[in-house]
TrEMBL record:
This is ADP-ribosyl cyclase/cyclic ADP-ribose hydrolase. One of its GO terms (biological process) is signal transduction. It comes from Protea cynaroides. It catalyses: NAD(+) + H2O = ADP-D-ribose + nicotinamide + H(+). InterPro entries: TIR_dom, Toll_tir_struct_dom_sf.
Length: 170
């Protein structure tokens, strides 16, 4: 299945899960720069073409506003979160912070989470192996143990959810 085929299929399934009275945006995309101009932009375009309101982080969005609080509000206001796990995902402190918030909304509000494994395996995410292991070697030395544990817990649970695997590393 090509990226365009997947994005089109995903938009059809995403659009059928919405309820009326929904605020802010329908879908929150969590991703790193290594997928922004390939898969993520295409997914964003296809979803928007289907009338689905998407929150996709952009440097232009943050003029004059605290990034952290705006991201948390965007995640909480979304019906669906789609973390796009790539080789660089666990290297990003921001992505891991987003993922913890996504995990909290999944547990407390029943938010739908659709993980995408882009050139990584679900076991890399769940067990923090491969590129995720390298990222966590650095995190253990630079962040508080409780924070690192929250990142690991979120990766373990969200990585176990049914999602889509895209790319050659399967």
């Amino acid at each position: 299945m090509t990226t365009l085929d997947w994005a089109s299929t995903a938009s059809a399934s995403v659009s059928t899960t919405f309820t009326t009275g929904f605020s802010s945006c329908h879908v929150f995309l969590s991703f790193t720069e290594d997928t922004r101009y390939s898969f993520t932009c295409l997914l964003d375009l296809v979803l928007k073409d289907r009338g689905i309101k998407v929150f996709m982080d952009s440097k232009k969005l943050w003029l004059g506003e605290a990034v952290g609080s705006a991201l948390l509000r965007a995640i909480e206001g979304s019906k669906i979160s789609i973390p796009i796990f790539s080789e660089r995902y666990a290297h990003s402190k921001w992505c891991l912070l987003e993922l913890v918030q996504i995990f909290e909304c999944y547990k407390s509000k029943g938010q739908t989470v659709i993980p995408i494994f882009f050139h990584v395996t679900p076991s890399d995410v769940q067990s923090q192996t491969g590129s995720f292991a390298a990222a966590f070697q650095n995190h253990v030395n630079n962040f508080e143990p409780g924070l690192v544990k929250s990142w690991r817990d979120a990766l373990r649970v969200i990585g176990n959810l049914e999602g889509s695997i895209i790319g050659p590393k399967v």
